[in-house]
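We were asked to recover a plausible sequence for a given structure. The inputs and outputs are reproduced exactly as logged, with field labels preserved.

PROBLEM: sequence recovery
POSITIONS: 306
GIVEN STRUCTURE:
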């Protein structure tokens, strides 16, 4: 899918792109899940990991495909096209992939602010190729959310102050992945057993009925140990083991301490007193954020048990 804009806009673009860029090729790859992402919501002893992170790191997979397309374009250039330059991006620079994908006709930005496709629902990884080629643009996507507010009402932490606007400070994906310090107490109960990301606003989108797991790229097939990991196993991880378990996964970048913090909150919400010894052991962890989360989890387990 192709999108073009005036050259002067590229001079102001944030990605360090050269001013000769004339076209953007926006692409998407489906990672539609086979199972309902919400099915583990009431399974207190396991942690829920966002669908996109259950397989290999999407940055690597999508970038390989973009580079392969770039090589194909370079081969074609030797025949019918003038010489050109290109750069590929997969969530690796301040490139606005979602607006670009909408402008190129892949879909539209839904009320949950993510891209929605008629064919793939909300389950798309996005990438972009910036090029100096002059290409014929595609027609932009058309918003067909209508009056539906399923994604808005499904959010556990009310992170949508209004349709098409997200308050990241309340978003569980932000809190469990990007936020480095203690998670605010007001959101901890709502996090439930989510230990990395949240799929609720994506999973309830009605357009997902057209998204078939069979159409998803096999490279994104989930790793069995990440589909429903036991909280007891996560809580027992030290740093070397964490790095081994999550090697090749996008989860690895948050580090052991942040993952343990998340698992402690899930443990506190679980009501499972069998986790109490593991939680208590973490009261003496080297990391202050982990220690604080362990104290909260132990107190909450006692409260829930009472």
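RECOVERED SEQUENCE:
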């Amino acid at each position: 899918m192709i999108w073009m804009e005036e050259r002067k806009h590229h001079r102001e673009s944030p990605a360090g792109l050269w001013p000769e860029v004339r076209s953007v090729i926006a692409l998407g790859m489906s990672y539609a899940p086979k199972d309902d992402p919400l099915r583990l919501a009431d399974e207190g002893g396991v942690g829920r990991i966002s669908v996109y992170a259950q397989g290999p790191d999407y940055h690597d997979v999508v970038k390989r495909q973009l580079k392969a397309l770039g090589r194909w374009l370079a081969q074609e250039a030797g025949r019918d096209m003038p010489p050109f330059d290109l750069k590929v991006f997969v969530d690796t620079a301040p490139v606005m992939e979602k607006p670009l994908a909408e402008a190129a006709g892949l879909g539209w930005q839904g009320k949950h602010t993510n891209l929605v496709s008629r064919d793939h629902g909300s389950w798309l990884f996005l990438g972009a190729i910036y090029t100096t080629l002059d290409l014929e643009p595609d027609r932009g996507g058309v918003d067909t959310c209508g009056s539906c507010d399923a994604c808005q009402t499904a959010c556990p932490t009310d992170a949508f102050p209004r349709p098409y606007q997200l308050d990241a400070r309340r978003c569980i994906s932000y809190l469990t992945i990007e936020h480095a310090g203690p998670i605010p107490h007001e959101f901890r109960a709502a996090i439930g057993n989510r230990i990395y990301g949240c799929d609720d606003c994506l999973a309830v989108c009605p357009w997902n009925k057209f998204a078939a797991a069979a159409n998803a790229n096999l490279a994104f097939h989930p790793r069995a140990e990440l589909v429903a990991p036991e909280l007891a196993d996560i809580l027992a991880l030290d740093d070397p083991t964490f790095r081994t378990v999550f090697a090749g996964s996008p989860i690895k970048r948050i580090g052991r301490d942040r993952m343990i913090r998340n698992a402690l909150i899930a443990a506190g919400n679980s009501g499972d007193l069998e986790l109490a010894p593991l939680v208590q052991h973490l009261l003496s962890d080297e990391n202050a954020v982990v220690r604080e989360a362990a104290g909260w989890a132990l107190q909450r387990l006692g409260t829930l048990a009472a």
